[in-house]
């Protein structure tokens, strides 16, 4: 019985292309989280400003919002495999430039922000191509929800390992080494992509104008209520709740009186919760009501943030940090799973571009807001308010998320 359950949990690994993708991405994502942690820490130690932390997130992610629609069209029009290969090479070059900038020891916060903005543009084309490409890697579409959940667990495992390594490397060797290791990590994902054997790409014979494709995608969202509601919930949470990560350097240095390693440990405990969440979702039975699970985990996210914000005893605070990671990742993963499963294959790239807008557009705006708010009421008060907001969002969507259960 246990063997069958374990096999069910990892059933997507039966697809060779997905195994390659998972392996390469696992290495690359660790490097990505090392770089994210390093950038935030460097900017904060240079400026000692919560607002600059918010601006860092804004600059790194808002370009993804601006260009995500073009990225979605590129994903639907062109070979997603080649688009993803190009974005990975471009991301590697960006990491190399960042490492060179820091190693030369002649850099300012604004130069780091500019390179972060370039990565945001790259991600605008990467995300809409990456997620739909998973569909092409999985031959049995019944394995798709499992593949998406495992993909989320891989990202979150990297979130566990990456910041912890980054904290140690920042203290021992400096930020430049973090950025260089991230650049090297892209070799793994590029090699995995080159080893894949995907079906021959057949381009669509008819190309519509970009404006027509954007209008068609928006009309599809309006007509598909399940996708529309999930995007609305994801957008609100990304704007008002998820940017709590922005203030973690302040907690590490001021509240817990630590250093870069402390910052890495906080991120890692959040990663522990996120990994547990992903494993849990991967093991969920296909007939499980994901909406009810989404509702419960949105509540968990809110309560855990409220508790984390007001405990200065580090070990206890880390328990609530892990719980916040669990709730956050469950919320995001379930929204993405429902959106992808319910999307028409021909519209999936554009749908994911709108999802990228909801996430990458709202999250950086929220980071600016939370950075400014924390300047007025302090970081603990700001995160406490975000926890309350999560509970309010759960209350707003309660009727929709519990509707299927009520029918049964």
From TrEMBL:
GO MF terms held by the record: transmembrane transporter activity
Membrane topology: Multi-pass membrane protein
Cross-referenced Gene3D superfamilies: MFS general substrate transporter like domains
A cellular component annotation (GO) from this entry: plasma membrane
Subcellular location: Cell membrane
First-listed, main subcellular location of the protein, grouped into a coarse class: membrane
Name recorded for this polypeptide: MFS family permease
């Amino acid at each position: 019985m246990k063997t069958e359950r374990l096999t069910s949990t990892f059933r997507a690994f039966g697809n060779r292309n997905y195994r390659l993708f998972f392996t390469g991405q696992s290495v690359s994502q660790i490097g990505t989280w090392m770089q994210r942690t390093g950038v935030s820490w460097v900017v904060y130690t240079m400026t000692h400003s919560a607002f600059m932390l918010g601006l860092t997130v804004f600059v790194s992610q808002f370009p993804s919002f601006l260009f995500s629609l073009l990225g979605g069209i590129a994903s639907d029009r062109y070979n997603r495999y080649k688009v993803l290969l190009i974005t990975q090479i471009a991301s590697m070059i960006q990491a190399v430039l960042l490492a060179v900038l820091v190693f030369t020891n002649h850099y300012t916060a604004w130069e780091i922000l500019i390179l972060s903005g370039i990565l945001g543009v790259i991600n605008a084309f990467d995300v809409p191509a990456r997620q739909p490409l998973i569909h092409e890697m999985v031959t049995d579409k019944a394995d798709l929800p499992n593949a998406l959940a495992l993909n989320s667990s891989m990202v979150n495992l990297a979130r566990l390992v990456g910041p912890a390594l980054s904290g140690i490397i920042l203290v021992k060797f400096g930020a430049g080494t973090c950025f260089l290791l991230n650049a090297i990590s892209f070799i793994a994902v590029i090699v995995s992509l080159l080893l894949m054997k995907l079906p021959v790409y057949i381009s669509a014979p008819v190309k519509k104008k970009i404006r027509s494709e954007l209008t068609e995608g928006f009309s599809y969202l309006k007509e598909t209520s399940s996708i529309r509601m999930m995007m609305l919930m994801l957008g609100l949470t990304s704007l008002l709740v998820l940017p709590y990560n922005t203030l973690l350097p302040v907690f590490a240095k001021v509240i817990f009186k630590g250093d870069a390693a402390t910052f890495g440990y906080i991120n890692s405990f959040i990663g522990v919760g996120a990994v547990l969440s992903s494993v849990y979702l991967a093991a969920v039975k296909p007939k499980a009501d994901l909406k009810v699970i989404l509702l419960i985990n949105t509540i968990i996210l809110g309560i855990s943030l409220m508790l984390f914000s007001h405990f200065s005893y580090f070990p206890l605070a880390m328990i609530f940090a892990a719980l916040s990671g669990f709730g956050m990742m469950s919320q995001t993963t379930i929204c993405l799973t429902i959106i992808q499963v319910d999307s028409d294959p021909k519209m999936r790239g554009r749908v994911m571009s709108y999802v990228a807008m909801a996430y990458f557009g709202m999250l950086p705006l929220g980071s600016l807001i939370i950075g400014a708010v924390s300047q007025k009421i302090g970081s603990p008060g700001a995160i406490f308010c975000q926890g309350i907001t999560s509970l309010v969002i759960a209350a707003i969507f309660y009727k929709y998320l519990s509707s299927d259960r009520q029918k049964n």
